[in-house]
Amino acid sequence: MGDKEQRTVSAVSDYWQSHPLGVQYNIDKEIKVGSPEFFAHIRPWMNPYKFPWNMERIKREASQLKGKHLLEIGCGMGFDSLEFLKCGVRVTATDLTAAAIELARLHFKIAAVRAEDVRMENVLALSFPDNSFDAVWANGVLHHTGNTAQAIREVHRVLKPGGRAIISHFYRKPSWMFWLSRFGHENIEHKEKDPPVTDFFSEKEILAMFKGFVVEESVQEHYRALPIARRGIKASLYKWGFRPIYNLLPVSIAKRLAYKFTVTAIKTAGPTA
Questions:
Q1: What per-residue confidence (pLDDT) applies to 189?
Q2: Do residues 132 and 70 lie in contact, with contact meaning Cβ atoms separated by under 8 Å?
Q3: How far apart are CA 78 and CA 164, in angstroms?
């Protein structure tokens, strides 16, 4: 890993260490972060509950993966991994930051589930041997790494031949979020600045990264603007200006502006290029 890539990894790690995804939804400051009340309080705002299509995908994939071993990349507080574990899937949950790993472990303990492992990992240089997992799940992670293509190569490497890569999702362009992100850098969900890396790709660019895979499904998602939790100038413009007007668009037009693109792909026996 070169110096520039290492600096990017450090910047991304520092950001998410100080901004664990989900903490911003804790509007009751008397609730202790990491407590049972905390996880119940933020649950409605977390994937997969906020995005029903992701819950449907988890249930569909879990029905095929019961008893098999899934790697989650970027587990955060562990909500996605928890749903797979409840369905009988063996899970190794990983994240770039110690803050996320600590919270995921607490969450699993509270929920009385047991993962195969919960550990820090960098998806650009995973420590696992080749052909280790039956499936890899990553939700909203790879486009924040600074090297999405390398991340997908690592996903390919650690998957067994025939293994499933369920990458939910990439940020897509053109899309409503791509254009919205051009108007200032105030984060819609956090009070602080945006993450140091958020890459948008065309569908053609995304699919081109899946060398060594057969794409089973690729789908545009999040074509409607959903509610958000915070306040602020950009958030207010979003809630009272952009969102109600944009959501009047016919579905056929809105889907063309969907900002998430999800790919499910099967690893072939051959190496990546």
A1: 55
A2: no
A3: 20
Lowest mean per-residue pLDDT among 23-27, 68-72, 216-220: 23-27
Block residue for tokens 């009070």: 191
- Distance, in Å, from the CA atom of 156 to the CA atom of 214, rounded to the nearest integer, reads 11
Q: What is the DSSP string of 40-87?
A: HHHGGGSTTTSSHHHHHHHHHHHHHHTTSEEEEES-TTSHHHHHHHHT
> Which three-class secondary structure state does DSSP give residue 190?
coil
What is the value of pTM for the model shown? 0.90
Query: At 176, which helix (H) or strand (E)?
Result: helix 176-181
Instruction: Give per-residue burial for 191-214: e unless 16+ CB within 10 Å, then b.
Output: eeeebbbeebbeeebbbebbebbe
Contacts of 131 (CB under 8 A, 6+ apart): 158, 159, 160, 161
Q: Give the number of other CB atoms < 10 A from CB of residue 27.
A: 11
Bond before 174 cis per omega within 30 degrees: yes
- Say how far apart CA 143 and CA 8 lie, in whole Å: 13
Q: What domains sit in the chain, N to C, each tagged with a CATH number?
A: 3-267 (3.40.50.150)
Which residues on adjacent β-strands are paired with residue 215?
265
Averaged confidence pLDDT in the chain: 90
Work out whether strand 213-221 and strand 260-267 pair parallel, antiparallel, or are unpaired.
Answer: antiparallel
Residue percentage of the chain with pLDDT more than 70: 92
Check: CB of residue 104 under 8 Å from CB of residue 95.
yes
- Give 154 or 26, the one with higher predicted confidence: 154
